[in-house]
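P.,

For your records, the input lines for the assembly:
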Amino acid sequence: MAHPYMANSVPALKRAMLDDIGVADVETLFEQIPAAHRLQRPLDLPPALASENELRRHLASLLAKNASCEENLNFLGAGCWQHYVPAVCDEIVRRTEWLHSVFGSPSSDHGRNQAWFEFASQLGELVGFDLVGLPVYSWGCAAGHAIRMAARLTGRREVLVPRLIDPERLAVIRNYCEPPQMASHIAIRFVEPDAATGMLDLDDLRAKLSTRTAAVYIETPGYLGVIEARAREITALARAAGAETIIGADPISLGVLAPPGELGADIAVGPTQPLGVHMNCGGGTGGYIATRDEERYARQYPTLMISIAETLRPGEFGFGLSLFHQTSYGLREKGNDWTGNSVYMWAVANAAYMALLGPQGFRELGELILSRARHAARLLETIPGVRVRWPGNLFKEFVVDFTATGRTVRDINKALLDHSIFGGKDLSAELPQYGQSALWCVTEIHSRQDIERLAETLKGILGQ
Amino acid sequence: MTTPPRRYHAPVWDEPVVFELGYPGRRGQIFGTPDEPIATTDLVPSGARRRTPPALPELSEPEVLRHYLHLAQMTLGMMGVSLFGTCTMKYNAPVAESLAARPQLAELHPYQDESTLQGVLEIIHNFDLILRELSGMDQFVFQPGGGADAAYTHCCVTRAYFAASGELAQRDEIVTSIQAHPCNAATAAAAGFKVVTLMLEDNGYPSLDALKAAIGPRTAALMINNPDDMGVYNPQIMEWVRLVHEAGGLAFYDHANFNGVMGRLRARELGFDACMYMLHKTFGAPKGGGGPAVGAYGCSAALAPFLPGPVITRTDGRYRLDDDRPQSAGRVREFWGNVPQVMKAYAWARAMGADGIREAADLSVIGNNYMEKRLLQIDGVGKSHPHLTQHRLEMTRMSLEKLKEQTGIGTLEVQNRMVDFGIDAYWLSHEPWLVPEPFTPEAGEMYGKEDLDLWVDVIAHIAAEARAIPDVVKTAPHNQAIAQLKPDWLEDPQRWAMTWRAYLRKHRPPPQPTRNAAE
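Structure tokens returned:
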């Protein structure tokens, strides 16, 4: 029987093509492969689900074993955040024309290239920079590339990063900085937080900045949700030391928070998932890299870039790959790091998202998140034994300390799960100095009623 | 002159850049208002506040939808015939797409309690088992965000492996071939290794002597594809792997060109320690113009402790995320990979089954040999290593060197003209071009004989045009959404503009105020 995905699987057609080639059987076509290399038995795979109906039922039954953040109330964030995804974004990214496209050409895949340019252009407005590469795999990968760019730019091999950094992201950065055994290793030194504010300790930063420092990497909001209020001082200190400043910023905050470009950053990096992409169990992750449009920086990008350009037809514009030769495609091991398939379809979702929101949308969304997160933090703090660390300065995430309740985060989250609530990420193992603490995330998807339901449920669980 | 194979014209919308659309005050989305009036001055420290709003466009919701639909329509992609070599153009079934959009996948957070993720973990584990059977490897991970990232993962695993044995400082070289994808050399260098590149002999692959001269106590790994993207299979590959092992190195099989050998050979049985598959190519997940992608990385039990985490395991009927792995290479990317793509690849593998997968390999090799034979009958078309008489596998590196000599029309011009017939631009060759004026079709198993014939007919038609009306070819495309780009902006710092903001600054500067003569 012919297979629905394969037009030439009709036996007579296959035979006709073999006749045209001039071979007796298909095995002849594999004559390059020595017998000793060949698998001597049929593949042992689960049976084919030949009908779409069967396949759909099988997968739907597996997916039904999951409990999602739609039917439960979710407060997990930490690098993957639940934001509202407008239906227009979903409609657009599923369009077959570009969903199934590959490299193409600037003329034939003109629309997709324009959407990529609009991704870079709109993100540039948010972060305050006029040079933005096509996205990389994730925030951690973007930070890793940016640190390597800074090392090449300065000829120095040390980076300062905040002690309070997401361990998931740090693990990625560690790989990009290479182990100490490698000649091109970049040393990571940690800058301590100011315990009172959760922001960077500037005295510690001053003490650690030196002529070895290639880059100072900071984040705002940081891993634990704190807005870095002294970013301008930090970038000035880094500049005085001859180092580059890399600011990691969640673009969804940039309707209300100052853009990295304005804060004095040399390179901005961050996540793209918040801009119209579902969490997808972490599979919505993407990262951006942006700088001033100066050759000094442009020549160091590892990413593909799309530039607007004139066409042969007067007055007409298109969008083509720029600075391609300096990538790994052009120069192999002499290129800047490497590039390849990334998360370009999500860039289209990001572009549509930014166009939907516009300047007002980003401001209002930022204010709504600030207000809801602050409200949640305040409400949780009214529960005896529950403390919020740095409650006066947060964007969408904050640390809830349950130590004084005598209960572990693990216990509390387990009890919350029975009430269909996904509690915040347990920090007790990675940050033991904060006792039984968890990182909670509140966004625009949380209504006031959701937050009140959480507070009431927590009170019940904690026996109050 | 032959008759054009078919009439075609791309949609033309003259769609402005989004910044030129809209009207101040329009909006495309409302999120609700804070429950109590708030002042950002109270909630954001003064130094951290945004002072001027971002200069984003202001559009209504339908304007945004229509704008991006217009752009989608001006994307040819696979709407016609796309035989983009090295990328294994494949059917991306909508059934998998619609399942991936369900909240039970789209609205999952990777840090949820394991008990709430059993379905997705089962899918990933089951797909891991399928890849193990296809490769003979012992464990796969899906964290790498593409084929190049899987190559990088191999470099990270190699570092962790030799760090554990105390040999990392000594083993600082990775050996590859000039016909391996550039990402192998590039990721090795980015991981801190010195790259040793082997050149090809007349038979289409590097010699054993060249390999022997390249390996030794400094060798950390071999990173190699087979067949390469000329369609040439290195029959000495088992001896290669044996020699690399003897020298103390690891052997990584870049299985980018797996489509023609699926079900016929297994990486582990050839001796390899690790391999990678591209789920967005060989396994039916969509390409998205360049991701989200997955480079599924699999390895032997000996290398498994060094894999980036978490690794998904099954014990007593429960699925777990095992992240307690002290020798792990850490992370190459946050979380566990592009999970929806893994699910789509699993759906593809289940829709195909063992017989279907083997049939797909057969058809892709038949399709390539069928096309190759027809293409070589066109005056001006040749192929790499023409003296090699054995049939190529799922791709053949073709050449328009002769056509260029005869007419001045080379592969770039033909590529631009192809799209005038609704045929996606073909792949040329990775750098460096070993074959002059290269092009590399890959038939795959999806397209019917009629589509393959159309593709060849278009090449034949353009070759005839190159002789009769070369200017039409040189100035192509003519039936596309836009004409050919002028190359001069793309590499000129004074003119390139990767953002609208840079474009306005460089190309539409505001008029300068006239200087007062008295100044």
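Two observations worth noting. The mean pLDDT of chain B is 96. Chain B touches chain A through 217 residues (CB under 8 Å).

Regards
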